[in-house]
Every structure is written in C-alpha cells, then in structure tokens.
Amino acid sequence: MWANCFLPGLALCLEATAVMIDKEGLPDTGLDTSNWTTGELPPISDMIDINDMQFAAKNTLSGKNYAYYRTAALDEVTYQANLFIWEKIRLNGFSFVDVSDINLNTSILGYNFSAPFFIAPAAKAGKASAGAETNLAKAAGAAGILYVPSISSSENTSTIGAAAVDGQVMFHQEYIWSNKTKLQDELDEIEAAGFKAIFLTVDNTGVNGIRDRSMRFTSGSNSDHSATFTIEALNQLRNMTSLPIVPKGVKTAHDVKLCADLGFPAVYISNHGGRVVDMAPTAVEVLLDVHKQYPEVFDQIEIYADGGVRRATHVLTLLALGARAVGLGRPFMFANVYGEEGVTKAIDILTLELTTTMALMGQPDIAGYRGNTTFINTRQVELEYFGAPLDVDPSSSPTSIPSVSSGNATSRQ
Ligand SMILES: Cc1cc2nc3c(=O)[nH]c(=O)nc-3n(C[C@H](O)[C@H](O)[C@H](O)COP(=O)(O)O)c2cc1C
Ligand SMILES: *[C@@H]1O[C@H](CO)[C@@H](O)[C@H](O)[C@H]1NC(C)=O
Ligand SMILES: *[C@@H]1O[C@H](CO)[C@@H](O)[C@H](O)[C@H]1NC(C)=O
Ligand SMILES: *[C@@H]1O[C@H](CO)[C@@H](O)[C@H](O)[C@H]1NC(C)=O
Ligand SMILES: *[C@@H]1O[C@H](CO)[C@@H](O)[C@H](O)[C@H]1NC(C)=O
Ligand SMILES: *[C@@H]1O[C@H](CO)[C@@H](O)[C@H](O)[C@H]1NC(C)=O
Ligand SMILES: *[C@@H]1O[C@H](CO)[C@@H](O)[C@H](O)[C@H]1NC(C)=O
Ligand SMILES: *[C@@H]1O[C@H](CO)[C@@H](O)[C@H](O)[C@H]1NC(C)=O
Ligand SMILES: *[C@@H]1O[C@H](CO)[C@@H](O)[C@H](O)[C@H]1NC(C)=O
Q1: Which of 52, 111, 210, 257 could serve as 47's disulfide partner, Cβ 3.0–4.6 Å?
Q2: What is the pLDDT of residues 46-62, one digit of tens each?
Q3: Residue of the nearest CA to atom 7 in ligand 7?
C-alpha cells in the first residue's frame, strides 16, 4: 500500500506503508503482512494455518465480498463463541503408545473418506474465485474428503456434479423453498447430478438471520424459504427424493432427539456459523447437552457438527464429544481466493495438524476418538453451561491405569 500523497511530486509520495490486517482477535501466530499489497493475493507460502487464509481473503477481496463470507447475525455473540469455546477445553494426551501408523479414514453415511472433516455448504464460492465451486469439488476429490455444495452456489448443480473426479462422492445441501415446484425440481437435479445425500437446512425457515456486516453493502432480501415447515411438511418432503436426508442446522438437544426419533440416518448440529440465531449455543455445548439428556442418540444415528472449527484440535474435540464428522464453512471459502491450490493447501494444513496431534495424543486411529471423552476435559464449559460439571470426579484427567501388556520397569531396576 502506498502512503497518501499530500504533496504530489515529492519522493515522500512513494514511501511504502506496511499493510496492517485487523486480525479480529484471532490467535496471533506471527503472520507478517507488512510486505503484502492491499488488493493483491499474498504469496501462498505465507499460509501456515487456517486463519491465515481469512487474512489473505480480507486483504484481497472487496469489502463487500469479504463481508458476505465473514458476516454473522446481530451482535455475533454466537460467531465469537464458536471461535473461542476451544480455549475452555483441555485435551488429554497419552504417552507410551505406538503411533507409527496414523489412520484418518472415516465413513460418512456409509461412504469412505480420507478424513473426518468436510467442506460445509456455503453459498457463492464465485465471490472468491472464478473457479467457484468447481475448485472446491476438485480439491475435495483429489484429497478424498467430502464436499457438500450449497444450493445457493455460484455454479449450478450439474456443473458442480460434473467436476467430480472418478469415484468421488459428494452430498448436496438444499433449502426448504416455499415454492414446492422449485424444491422438487432441485431435488431431482441433485439426484440426477450424482449427489448421494441431501443436507436439508432447517434452521432458517421463513427468513435469514439479520446480518449487519453484509446489510451495510446490500439490503436484506426475501429468502423465499418456507415459513410453514412443520413436522408434517418434513414428512411430505421425505417423499420427494430417494436420497437420504440429513437435517442441518439443528441447534438444541431437543431437536437432535426429535430427528433421531423421526428415523433420519444422521443429524448435523450447527448454528450456521452464527448467521441465524445470535446467542445460540456452540456445537460443543449442544453435544454436551445431548450427552446429558439423550445419550442413547449417539448409538441411534450419525452426528455431524460445525462452527468455528479452525484447527485439528477443534476437530478432535467434536469427535470426542460424539460427532462422526466435522464441517468447516468460511475457511474453505477464504482459501478459494487462491483457487483449487488454496483449498488443497487448507486441506493439507488441517490433515498435517490432525496426524501430528493424533500422534502426540497417543491415539493413531481416528475412530478411537469418536465418543471417547477420555481425551477431553470439558468441565469449564459444563460449569458455565449447566451450572455444574456433568461428572464430579475431582481429577482433571482419567485415573484408571490401562493394563501393562509386557515388561515391568520397576522389576528391571
Ligand atoms: C458465506 C456462507 C454461506 C453459507 N451458506 C450456507 C448455505 O447456503 N446453506 C447452509 O446450509 N449453510 C450455509 N452456511 C453455513 C455453513 O454450512 C456452516 O454451517 C458454517 O459456515 C460453519 O461455521 P464456520 O464458517 O465457522 O466454519 C454458510 C456459511 C457461510 C459463511
Ligand atoms: C514477504 O515476506 C515473506 C517472508 O520474508 C516472504 O515469504 C514473502 O514472499 C514476501 N511477500 C512478498 C509479497 O514479497
Ligand atoms: C485409508 O483408505 C485408503 C483408501 O481406501 C486406503 O488406501 C488406506 O489404506 C486406508 N488407510 C488405513 C490406515 O487403513
Ligand atoms: C470402506 O472402508 C471399509 C473399511 O476400511 C472397507 O471395508 C470397505 O470395503 C470400504 N468401502 C468402499 C466402498 O470402498
Ligand atoms: C449449468 O451451467 C452450465 C454452465 O454455465 C450451462 O451450460 C448449463 O446449461 C446449466 N445447466 C442448467 C440445468 O441450468
Ligand atoms: C416456482 O418454481 C418454478 C420452477 O423453478 C417456476 O417455474 C415458477 O415460476 C415458480 N413459481 C413462483 C410462483 O415463483
Ligand atoms: C408418502 O408416500 C407414501 C407412498 O407413496 C404415501 O403412502 C404417504 O401417504 C406419503 N406421505 C406423505 C406425508 O405424503
Ligand atoms: C478411549 O481411549 C482410551 C485411551 O486411548 C482407551 O484406553 C479406551 O479404551 C477408549 N475407550 C473406548 C470406549 O474406546
Ligand atoms: C511390577 O513389579 C513390581 C515389583 O516386582 C510389582 O510389585 C508390580 O505389581 C509389577 N507391576 C505390574 C504392572 O506388573
């Protein structure tokens, strides 16, 4: 960025000014943006963690397009809570384990993927890159992870479906439009384009959340979402497609249980990245509430979750609380400012963090974390959310000593 030129003609005008990016309170990991140029893509080699992608997008995109991705509802209490709930959690890592063979393979609705994280449905990838959703589909396909495009994508359903690499499985998000013809047409298109399941977003029926940051650039518009989406309407909708339906945007333990009892194969706990009900709880809190009120649900159905996931430690936390797979919305949209290469880099960053953290925590198999609260201490969250910890064991980590399979250090002394 060049300094303002108060006295044209003077050499003073050419003095470069270091670019400062407001990092919005996100963790400071030493990213030096001083030699970046506002409006230009920084070198991708500067991208070391997922939050760096947000800063690169903020530096590169127009204020309007950045706001579109970044915005959240009202005071963004939930948006912030999603990002910072992790500070209240402690992970228990164990030594003396063979961690030479790391396995991230995870099945989601019976389909095999290479990692337990996926690209969550987020509208309008074209605001970050001309390659739009195709970039996301290709990067996900090459890496073997799940991508779930939004029905409000920049590209149409058949174009995104056609971007699939050989054998790639994708699911597709859908909204409940008040226009039933449109709904039926889209469900048919999704099925015809080869998508294997529907993530049906149930958290913004009728209206979208009020999102100030984006409303400063565009007025809030009619969502065209049905405002009469009752249980009866849901039953009718299940007749409109042969694909499995996963309700997305469930934000209370009550509704998780309701969906499980209605016979859905899975439910997706999400507060929509804080874009719908401000002050809604985080996925961590909802999962704890499900443990408290309806623990049987974890054996009934698969559970996915999202919101503020930026590190492998966040993925492992949600897995340990019972989620099978974890979505990331904004991070991949921001990474797409670098096109497919950026999305691939974001996937690689998270994968490296996961394999590293799993090795350091002493459980090399991703399946070993699922529902295994041995690995996490969530009592600080429980204390605040429930008024008391769920379990009153005063020790901070598990105290049962696993049996020693061979040797005895004491007897060898
Ligand atoms: C720009 C943007 C657009 C989104 N569009 C959709 C959408 O079309 N359908 C949907 O179900 N969720 C949508 N979401 C919500 C995401 O699927 C996801 O729940 C959320 O982004 C997760 O939070 P995170 O961004 O902190 O990872 C959108 C989120 C963002 C940021
Ligand atoms: C800025 O500096 C970093 C670190 O020295 C370097 O990797 C990067 O390429 C530089 N960026 C530009 C735009 O010169
Ligand atoms: C993970 O899945 C891939 C693809 O199916 C397979 O090649 C690989 O061996 C699996 N890894 C482990 C550790 O099972
Ligand atoms: C998925 O992975 C499991 C376990 O590794 C394997 O048994 C199964 O054959 C795989 N399914 C497909 C469709 O590749
Ligand atoms: C989808 O978009 C492609 C590329 O713009 C276009 O060729 C195709 O006709 C569109 N398909 C539908 C069903 O709209
Ligand atoms: C409903 O959707 C169909 C299919 O997209 C469209 O042709 C029709 O005009 C829509 N009806 C209304 C009232 O908007
Ligand atoms: C769903 O379809 C079945 C079989 O066609 C029918 O018996 C049932 O009444 C339908 N349910 C609803 C809620 O429309
Ligand atoms: C949870 O993980 C611990 C540590 O790896 C292990 O000892 C325990 O058997 C696991 N529990 C379950 C139920 O898998
Ligand atoms: C190890 O050896 C000591 C001394 O012989 C014995 O008291 C102890 O029970 C042994 N521990 C295990 C885990 O075998």
Answers
A1: 52
A2: 999 999 999 999 999 99
A3: 239
